[in-house]
Amino acid sequence: MNRSTPRLEIFADRIRDNARAIVTQCAKHGVQVAAVTKVLHAHPVLLQALEDTGITMLADSRLQNLRQIAECGTSLPTMLLRAPGRHDIDDTVQLADISLNSSLTTMTALSEAAVRAGTRHGVIVMVDVGDLREGVWPDHLVDVVSSAAALPGIDVKGVGTNLACYGGVQPSVENMTRLVQLRDMARAATGLELGLISGGNSANLPLMMSGAMPSEINNLRIGEAIILGRNTLDRSPWPQTRQDTVEVVAEIIELERKPSIPLGRTGEDAFGQHVTFTDRGIRLRAICNLGRQDVNPSDLAPVDPGNIVLGASSDHLIVDMTDSSESVEIGTEVRFWPTYAGLLATATSSAVWKAAATPHRL
């Protein structure tokens, strides 16, 4: 296993435990879990961690990630979370059992591709109940479902929605009840079962656990709560999960004592920002081989609480190591907990190695 830096270390056992805990919690409320793999780029270590956890589906927004899932081999159905572009239709039918859609034009293309391939493709018709991301506006749903139901090669499995992403609208009794009512209207108009109601993502878990989410909601698409153990409404730890599931590891390539404030007249930095500095006197400053090209420095929290992330340029992460709990030198590895955004960035960066955590870190 390559141990070059910078790298992302994945603690598979901890993620597996998180998945099992959340699957158990959801099962008590009649909810099945589609595990979302995108934040770790569907890495094989993650896929192995999710095996035998009770999840019923693997979901991702990128076709290249679904291809990787297919290459790793799985008996679980797969879901494409982002509606495909026109050049991705054939790959969608090949790689995804179900896709989330709101455009009849796209569903027509999927139907034609499924017929050509001699197969059937499942769709969940997305409804916008307020977050203003994807989804049919509610008063169009019946017409869209009715038209989609007539397409050959397409199975309309149900309806879904997404919240707490673009608009930050939180799942509530009101918007979840509205989703169920809309499903019932489409069911009555078309005669379709529409048995799957995908109510949202990790942000739905608090409502579910409170017992207030309508019992008809029977599927959630869970990513961050499994992988990072976080309540996505406020980033607090989610019950019965661990948060120490991934670490970003960088290496010190320079270590010098320097002033806390730049010398000379200052203006915009390389990213067009005016940076403010706090005068802490002369400090031991490390430069690590990680930069904004890989991750926003504000999305990294040092594992060692004595360290302070000061900022970054494209390729250099600057860390105050004065109060580090361990002795450091050139070549010392420095570890960080990433936020969801930080994990998404480092997992996507081709310059960051990805690996299972080393045994001594377990």
From TrEMBL:
List, alphabetically, the Pfam families matched. Answer: Ala_racemase_N
Matching entries from SUPFAM superfamilies are given as:
PLP-binding barrel
Coiled-coil regions in this chain?
none
Q: Which UniProt keywords apply?
A: Isomerase, Pyridoxal phosphate
Q: Does the keyword DNA repair apply?
A: no
Q: Which residues form the Alanine racemase N-terminal domain?
A: 12-227
Superkingdom field: Bacteria
GO annotations of cellular component type: cytosol
Cofactor(s) named in the record: pyridoxal 5'-phosphate
List the Gene Ontology MF annotations in alphabetical order: alanine racemase activity; pyridoxal phosphate binding
Q: Which PANTHER family match?
A: ALANINE RACEMASE, LYSINE RACEMASE
The entry's protein name is Alanine/ornithine racemase family PLP-dependent enzyme
